[in-house]
Amino acid sequence: MIKLIKMPKLSANMESGLLVTLRKQNGDDVQKGDVLFEVETEKVVSEIESEEDGKLVKLYFREGDNVKVDEIIAEIEIAE
Amino acid sequence: MKYIESISDDVYFNLALEEYIFNSLKDDTYFMLWKNENSIVMGKHQNAYEEINIKAIEQNNIKVARRNTGGGTVFHDRGNLNYSVITDYDKNTFIDYDKFIIPVINALNSIGVKAEKRRTSDIAIDGKKISGSAQTIKGNRALHHGTLLFSADLTMLHDLLKTTEGKIESKSVKSVRSIVTNIREHLIDTTINIDEFQKMFADAMFSDDIEKYEISQEQIESVNELVENKYSKWEWSFGASPDFYFEKESAVNGNAIKVKLNVKKGIVTECNIQGINLTCGELEENIIGSRYSYIDTVNKLKEYSSLKGILNINYEELADCFF
């Protein structure tokens, strides 16, 4: 099963966030609680953690990209 | 809530102490007050070379630090009081600045400072900024910190921040410049010093029975390790800058000189110099692979044999073409 990881809405006024650091790359194994990436918005750096075990199979953006709220950033293939 | 007064005025130590509390002390809310000797503090994802005047920083030996929170670049000196709040964060709620800023504004008001909220995360007097703040969130903990300009050297602040006629392209987080003012100028008694202000502010923030948390020797050692392995390292303060492209056209003794650089992790990876009536290949090769530093550039120019025969050569003026 594929889980889509989207840009979270971190504040009431947030329209987009800066994808500042990618901690996981395409093909990397991820575990629940691992930090996938860091997002910055309104002077807040927020670490986005994986909610499941699996493998990152697709990445739609690069470091430094501005991503709209709810846009898909990555796909994780969930471990069976 | 527990109150911590930092034992140091070293920017690297204080940022490391803050990170230590954030990662290791999760049982309570911690409130910390701290001041730094002259230093520049950048947001986590900023490009040092885009934000600061490298020449002035290197020539005056100013410490440059990168913090863990977002936002822009600030200058700290002993006239600037910093506060940090480290507390629980509920992932299902939105980012909130007010719950941290409003108590600070109330405390300032109670000691006669006519401070008010400005924009999302600033505090101002008559529209001029006295405080900026930023945050980081990790799991179920949040760190909020802010500056309070009390009697800071505002000229120095201005001189150490970047000004270039060159062009810099990167995907970094950019600073937003604001008109600032010192709190002291707006007090009835302008003879109060920063230490007295710190005490007044702390008294206004807390009741008498707040628990003061003393840092142990063992904790200091952990903090010092973090200073050594992270905060004081060039690889963190400069090397963590996003990659960028630099281009500048200058005139030296009537000769147009154009410099183009690509810099990755603080290291020059591509260098192109046009306009000096000499072959620049040797110089370009000498610069590629080294740190993007003003003093190093001056030294490399001095080593460059083809320039040695030119009378009245001003190496600093030539180095300015690279920044």
Automatic annotation (TrEMBL), chain A:
A single cellular component GO annotation: pyruvate dehydrogenase complex
GO terms for biological process, alphabetical: pyruvate decarboxylation to acetyl-CoA
Residue ranges annotated for the Lipoyl-binding domain, each copy included: 2-77
Keyword Manganese appears in the UniProt entry: no
Alphabetically ordered keywords of this record: Lipoyl
InterPro entries: 2-oxoA_DH_lipoyl-BS, Biotin_lipoyl, E2/Pdx1, Single_hybrid_motif
Keyword Transcription attributed: no
Origin superkingdom: Bacteria
Protein name: Biotin/lipoyl-binding protein
Protein species of origin: Sedimentibacter hydroxybenzoicus DSM 7310
From TrEMBL, chain B:
This protein's pathway: Protein modification; protein lipoylation via exogenous pathway; protein N(6)-(lipoyl)lysine from lipoate: step 1/2; Protein modification; protein lipoylation via exogenous pathway; protein N(6)-(lipoyl)lysine from lipoate: step 2/2
An example molecular function term from Gene Ontology annotations: ATP binding
GO biological process, one term: protein lipoylation
Originating organism: Sedimentibacter hydroxybenzoicus DSM 7310
Regions that span the bilayer: none
UniProt keyword list: ATP-binding, Ligase, Nucleotide-binding
One matching Pfam family: Lip_prot_lig_C
Protein name: lipoate--protein ligase
GO cellular component terms attached to this protein's record: cytoplasm
Reaction equations catalysed: L-lysyl-[lipoyl-carrier protein] + (R)-lipoate + ATP = N(6)-[(R)-lipoyl]-L-lysyl-[lipoyl-carrier protein] + AMP + diphosphate + H(+)
Enzyme class: ligase
PROSITE patterns assigned to the protein according to its UniProt record, in alphabetical order: BPL_LPL_CATALYTIC
UniProt xrefs under InterPro entries: aa-tRNA-synth_II/BPL/LPL (IPR045864), BPL_LPL_catalytic (IPR004143), Lipoate_protein_ligase_C (IPR019491), LipoylTrfase_LipoateP_Ligase (IPR004562)
Enzyme Commission identifier(s): 6.3.1.20
Annotated ranges, domain BPL/LPL catalytic: 25-213
Domain of life: Bacteria
